[in-house]
Design a protein that fits this description.
The complex is a heterodimer. By secondary structure, chain A is mainly beta. Chain A has one domain. Chain A contains 2 helices and 20 strands. In chain A, the strands form 6 sheets. In chain A, strands 1, 14, 15, 18, 19 and 20 form a 6-stranded antiparallel β-sheet that branches. Chain A has a 4-stranded antiparallel β-sheet with strand order 4-5-8-9, with no helix packed on it. Chain A has a 4-stranded antiparallel β-sheet with strand order 12-13-17-16, with no helix packed on it. The longest helix of chain A has 17 residues. Chain B is an all-alpha fold. Chain B has 2 domains: 85 residues; 65 residues, Winged helix-like DNA-binding domain superfamily/Winged helix DNA-binding domain (Arc Repressor Mutant, subunit A, Orthogonal Bundle), CATH 1.10.10.10. Helices cover 71% and strands 0% of the residues of chain B. Chain B is globular and about 50 Å long. The chains are: A mainly beta, B mainly alpha. At the A-B interface, helix 1, strand 1, strand 6, strand 9 and strand 12 of A face helix 1, helix 2, helix 3, helix 4 and helix 5 of B.
């Protein structure tokens, strides 16, 4: 876009043109086809998470290990005391750590999932983070509405190695996340970080669908159930 | 229980509205997969009460908007330095691609206002009703979005 087009009218027309052009890239045929992999990771495993109620998987790379590191831009040492969970899934090591990020000059609350092979020493950070509450604008996360209702949570998933990992950011009263598959029921522990709870689920490769429910002292939190479908795309 | 007549209307609406809704959803969320999910969910939730819905197209649009909004709220809140690409790649002319990238980087409510105003052609007063926000807030979101886009495109 040129300087001359930066008048309100021209910006108006430009935005209409851009949105119409982008919308037209969605066709009836294309829309039913699996999308390409945006992050260029290998195609040897092609599954995705679809949630009935709209939470989308975010295919990104993460990782690290106790020997890896964290700085503002490049992978450096991760302090042992900040590690919440260490795991290995799908042939890849990962850590769930208390985040040390800052945004708008303030510390970010929550956790980060760090996959070792995507965060080798000296490389740029490539992690994903999870925080509790609703983001308001650029710099603020509002937890008021979430704290008033334990059924509200944030969740999302990512690929680690050859598998999927799903993380929940939940109300501080929540003590567990119950995972029900066709073959099993498992209660995930919740780890408290920055006044909220975080739980992590390594999705087994043979699971096609599971239900997640929040628990408070063993009782299911009403309205918290979410059905996840794992869809093979081979 | 949907009547036979209602069922016929549902199928007709599905055929006519599915693609426009997919496009609308895609502009709101930037993901074809999520667009498919929310449009299917919108139709699925509408079907049982189809014969009671007065304006199916408006109802479905609002439903899609709310489902995308739900998804946005529940998505990871990513740390600033995280390198994430959640949008699907599409081949676009550079000037379109640049602006589309900027639109996707807008805070969600500003993005919704831009899509509803410039794609759906809704006046700001109606957008306020759809988003359940005050008219002044929507005007502010609109102004901030344009300021941001104008500055970035300069």
């Amino acid at each position: 876009m040129t300087k001359e087009s930066n008048t309100d009218l021209e910006l108006d027309q430009h935005l209409r043109h851009v949105l119409q052009t982008v919308a037209n890239t969605v066709t009836a045929e294309q829309s039913t086809a699996p999308a390409g992999r945006p992050n260029g990771r290998p195609d040897h495993r092609r599954r995705r998470i679809g949630l009935f109620i709209g939470a989308a998987s975010i295919p990104v790379a993460l990782a690290a290990g106790a020997f890896l590191k964290s700085g503002p831009e490049y992978v450096d040492q991760i302090p042992r005391e900040s590690i919440i969970v260490e795991g290995s899934v799908g042939g890849s090591e990962y850590l769930l750590v208390e985040t040390r990020r800052t945004a708008c000059g303030q510390p970010v609350k929550g956790v980060e999932l760090v996959e070792e092979k995507e965060n080798l020493l000296g490389s740029e950070w490539n992690t994903i983070g999870s925080e509790y509450g609703e983001r308001v604008g650029e710099c603020r996360v509002d937890t008021k509405r979430y704290l008033a209702n334990p059924a509200l949570f944030n969740d999302g998933g990512t690929e680690v190695g050859d598998s999927l990992v799903w993380i929940w950011a939940v109300h501080p009263d929540v003590t567990g996340v119950r995972i029900t598959t066709s073959a099993d029921v498992e209660d995930l522990p919740v780890h408290t970080v920055d006044g909220a709870g975080y739980a992590l689920f390594e999705v087994p490769n043979n699971v096609e669908m599971y239900t997640a429910e929040l628990l408070i002292n063993g009782e299911v939190v009403s309205g918290s159930a979410e059905v996840h479908k794992v869809i093979a795309q081979d | 229980m949907p009547t036979e007549k209602a069922s016929a209307g549902f199928e007709e609406t599905y055929r006519a509205q599915r693609l426009p809704l997919l496009r609308f959803a895609y502009l709101l969320c930037g993901s074809r997969e999520t667009s498919e999910d929310v449009v299917q969910s919108a139709f699925a939730s509408a079907q049982p009460r189809w014969d009671q819905i007065e304006s199916p197209a408006s109802y479905l649009r609002r439903s899609v908007l709310n489902l995308v909004k739900d998804g946005q709220r529940r998505r990871y809140q990513l740390a600033r330095l995280v390198s994430v690409t959640s949008a699907d790649p599409v081949g676009l002319p550079p000037e379109v691609d640049e602006t589309w990238t900027l639109i996707q980087q807008l805070p969600w409510l500003q993005r919704a206002v831009v899509v509803l105003h410039y794609y759906e052609d809704l006046p700001l007063v109606e957008i306020a009703q759809v988003l359940k926000r005050s008219e002044s807030t929507v005007r502010s979101d609109h102004r901030r979005a344009l300021d941001r886009l104008r500055k970035a495109l300069r």
